[in-house]
Specification:
Pfam families: PI3_PI4_kinase. This protein is mainly α. The chain has one domain (5-139). The chain has 4 helices and 2 strands.
Length: 140
């Protein structure tokens, strides 16, 4: 319904210098890669465009309402989605092919390496958060 280059054209008109545009796109790409990686690894609900708030001055991205994707019948995390994360045409046009094969992919790989590093203990934090989610599901 809207042109596929709408966000890209907005960014080009908003940022007068090439450096500002590049910085905005790079920061947004890194933020999007971390959100998509967290969505896949933590079995979160799908990230839709209306859930993203993009800061125009910095390219930082906030996600409005992520939840754990819990199956209503069994109460287990549902990780059987055919597509782990989704890029819309507008977002992929803004990021460009080079951004997807460069910073997006490499920052996802770097995030994955951080989780497998033995010095990084995220399990206890996730266990506490998941426990709360499971207790809320059980009360339903």
């Amino acid at each position: 319904m809207i042109p596929t280059n709408l966000i890209k054209e907005w960014a080009i008109q908003t940022f007068p210098s090439a450096t500002d545009l590049w910085t905005f796109r790079k920061q947004f790409t890194l933020q999007l890669s971390l959100a998509a990686f967290a969505e896949y690894v933590l079995h979160l609900t799908r990230l839709n465009p209306e859930m993203m708030y993009i800061h125009q001055d910095s390219g930082l991205m906030n996600v409005a309402y992520y939840r754990f994707d819990i199956d209503d019948s069994t109460g287990e995390l549902d990780g059987n989605r055919p597509v782990p994360f989704r890029l819309t045409h507008n977002i992929s046009e803004l990021i460009s092919w080079m951004g997807m094969s460069g910073p997006l992919t490499s920052s996802m790989i770097a995030s994955a390496r951080c989780l497998v590093t033995p010095n990084f203990k995220v399990q206890s934090i996730l266990r506490a958060v998941l426990r709360d989610e499971m207790m809320m599901w059980h009360k339903k």
